[in-house]
Design a protein that fits this description.
1 helix, two-stranded antiparallel sheet, 22% strand, alpha+beta
Length: 113
């Protein structure tokens, strides 16, 4: 039968508390912000309200220009259909000055995301 005294348990708990305290304070530092996924360095572009023309089967997209500190790669225009998991990449736009896209392949009676 395993027997642990209250003294040993108390000693173990104190040691664990000290270790947790040291870890908590060691994580507080002023590191350089160089993570390319850091939202302060690569802020998201803002999508304006989408203009849908259901008769023509089009959706006009417009967004704010990229203004991050990291090098620009591409705008990726994605389309999803309500109820489906798959998301299609319609186009990758590598021109940083282009902030519009016209999707001309919408099908009637489908809800898009």
């Amino acid at each position: 039968m395993l027997s642990i005294s209250k003294f040993e348990l108390s000693k173990c708990a104190k040691r664990s508390s000290i270790i947790l305290l040291i870890l908590a304070f060691s994580a507080c530092h002023d590191a350089n912000r160089n993570n390319p996924f850091d939202s302060a360095l690569t802020p998201a572009v803002v999508l304006q309200p989408v203009r849908v023309d259901s008769i023509a089967g089009t959706a006009a997209l417009e967004w704010s220009p990229y203004s991050g500190d990291q090098p620009f790669s591409a705008y990726c225009v994605l389309r999803g259909i309500q109820g489906l998991v798959k998301v299609d990449t319609l186009i990758e736009i590598d021109d940083i000055t282009r902030t519009t896209y016209l999707d001309t392949l919408l099908k009637p009676d489908l809800d898009y995301l």
